[in-house]
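Annotated sample (chain length 325).
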Amino acid sequence: MAIYFLNLKTFGRSGGSSAVSAAAYRAGERIRDERAGRTYDHTGRRDVLHKEILVPHRFAQEEMRWARDRADLWNAAERAESRRNARVAREYLVALPFELSPAQRLILARDFSQELSDRYGFAVDLTVHAPRDFPGSDPRNYHAHLLATTREVHIDRLGAKTALEMNDHDRLQLGLKPAVHELFHVRERWATVANEALREADIAERIDHRTLEAQGIDREPQLCIPRAAFEMERHGYRSVVAERLREEYQARVQTRREQSASQEASSAVVERPDQDLSHTPQSLEDIRREARENWLRYRESQIQRREESDPSFGKRLGHDNDLTR
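Output written by the structure step:
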């Protein structure tokens, strides 16, 4: 079944990231970082199905060769930043529905990239990847990397920072909502455009950006193993983190199953109106007390009937046999 996945990641110098390195890795190319004086060579990749750079539609008739060249664009992005903690790129990683054909997946990824470029005014370096071919990999894992500049793109250069990079105070001054609303918007839009693609392809599967709780689905979310732990296990090493996460996940799943079974049992009891739960004994002492009370009530009813038929019976019974004491 189609799976919803959209992850936003930022690249900043404070974390040692390089926009040139990120672009070379995703596109499977050899690019030199002019600022750092390093060359990143990832030409050995064989899983890159498609790569292209998109700019806002208003520049559709412009040549803009510098922006459409991967090395020029990302070196320009690095040169545009002077701060030591500058953010140099941001990425949207999306899972492409494997139910679609290769051409349909490409159209979906390209259209979504263009929509983001038009909305925020940045350049988008789109790369579509095939599933990795190694033990344990998921053959349905077609995905796309949308690497975006943090600055608006113009005909001959990168301009000011996009509205996404503004703090919430500056956004408020411009009449914009806090930046987190942009993430909500993008998550919803990805679900919408992906479902449109599935519908146009006459595929019944659909994805949903909402949480399971919001969808009314009572199950544990899928287990997510951090990339570092996943790579350790992929290379044959033991990951304590991955093992702990799996144990915790199984514990949550078991707890949810027990709770569900308990709720089903309670519902089954409630649906039996002929059962009087108010007199259901819960312990051995309750059973004994209830039996004695029933016996006393029975004896009292017998005495009353005997007295009605023989008025002298009560006097003969005597004080020592008074059952109402």
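Annotation: The radius of gyration is 35 Å.
Annotation: The first helix runs from residue 19 to 27.
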